[in-house]
Design brief:
five-stranded mixed β-sheet, binds adenosine-5'-triphosphate, EC 2.3.1.234, Gcp-like_dom, binds fe (iii) ion, tRNA processing, acyltransferase
């Protein structure tokens, strides 16, 4: 089974070819065109610019993915595309491109939930068995899921406001550090003292797996402003200490909430328990180390796909498409693009469309 995947829900235009033979998936090609430069001057992704760039780049991207896989469309069995959630102009660009290919070739069409793509990545990279606990932690998302099947997800909790990546990006902006903020803040934090500023650990006093990160960046803002008022500016050390304090607060919250999510997951008595992470924030060393230690201490395997497959890509969409295809799922040309699409509502019975 050879699947072409398309992804265009945010600021990366991507196409990939994944082949599954005898249950073993292999990435034949994965092409990603980033748009960071296009949006740099605006301090964030501009939806209209993103949509136009996707529309311009998608066909080149598909051609490159096929060339790298040494295939033509004749060698493809189905086209999978992110049909939500995301910036609607971008999602529409990808969906229209996939429909075009499907009409022209007669290939089956499969709409994939972008978050399902992230959530199934550990099966593509490490072949882990269902059910596993997934922490999806990126620029736009933060949630715990028990992944039981390609359309069977139980959400245990998540952020009630900002995603951690967003908090890293905003914190970097507050401190005059370059975007994306995660890597900049992590770099600064290396020389920082994490105990100088005691930032809050929001919602730890409340039961459950929900999290909150927007108060943290406000705390960084206050600390910055009082330093500026006191001394007229920030020294390099001040900046490093602020970054270290912020990062360790995020890591502590994620670790404690993961501990609780693991308890809920282990109550399902999985045969081979695994904790998997996905999303750009999973690249953070302090966060990754804390989660790894936690899972080892709980006797649970820890799976962190390589960063290129943790951030947005089309290989994950092609792979999720392959699982859906094998489960008999097909979409028709009336498939819609969804700006919102919670993962625990991916089951066809709840969707009302798709088969
Ligand atoms: P989504 O996939 O949820 O729509 P996205 O595309 O913005 O959102 P990703 O590409 O998965 O998310 O990740 C990007 C985010 O990860 C950015 O917010 C970035 O700051 C953050 N990030 C990247 N590297 C690190 C790091 N080392 N430490 C912390 N955060 C990081
Ligand atoms: Fe994503």
């Amino acid at each position: 089974l050879t699947i072409l995947g398309l992804e265009s829900s945010c600021d990366d235009t991507a196409a990939a070819v994944v082949r599954v033979s005898e249950g073993q998936p292999r990435i034949l090609s994965s092409v990603v065109f980033g748009q960071t430069d296009l949006h740099a001057a605006f301090g964030g992704v501009v939806p209209e610019i993103a949509a136009r760039a996707h529309a311009e780049k998608l066909d080149t991207c598909v051609k490159q993915a096929l060339t790298k896989a040494e295939l033509t469309l004749d060698g493809i069995d189905a086209v999978a595309v992110t049909s939500g959630p995301g910036l609607i102009g971008g999602v529409l660009s990808g969906v229209m491109c996939a429909k075009g290919i499907s009409v022209a070739t007669g290939l089956p069409l499969i709409g994939v939930n972008h978050l399902a793509g992230h959530a199934l990545t550990p099966r593509l990279t490490d072949g882990i068995a269902y059910p596993y606990l997934m922490l999806l932690v990126s620029g736009g998302h933060c949630q715990f899921l028990i992944v039981k099947g390609c359309q069977d997800f139980t959400r245990l909790g998540g952020t009630i406001d900002d995603a951690p990546g967003e908090a890293f990006d905003k914190t970097a902006r507050l401190l005059g550090l370059p975007q994306p903020g995660g890597p900049s803040v992590e770099r600064e934090a290396i020389d920082g003292d994490k105990s100088r500023f005691r930032f809050p650990r929001p919602l730890l006093d409340r039961p459950g797996c929900d999290m909150s990160f927007s108060g943290l960046k406000t705390a960084v803002l206050r600390a910055r402003d009082s330093l500026v008022a006191e001394k007229g500016g920030l020294s390099r050390q001040d900046r490093a200490d602020l970054c270290a304090g912020f990062q360790s607060a995020v890591a502590d919250v994620l670790a404690e909430k993961t501990r609780r999510a693991l308890d809920l997951y282990m109550a399902e008595a999985p045969q081979i328990p695994n904790l998997a992470v996905a999303g750009g924030v999973a690249a953070n060393c302090e966060i990754r180390t804390k989660l790894k230690t936690l899972s080892h201490d709980s006797g649970v395997g820890f799976v962190a796909p390589p960063l290129s497959l943790c951030t947005d890509n089309a290989a994950m969409i092609a792979y999720a498409g392959a699982e859906l295809f094998a489960a008999g799922h097909r979409d028709e040309l009336d498939m819609i693009a969804r700006p919102r699409w919670p993962l625990d509502q991916t089951s066809p019975a709840l969707l009302g469309s798709g088969k």
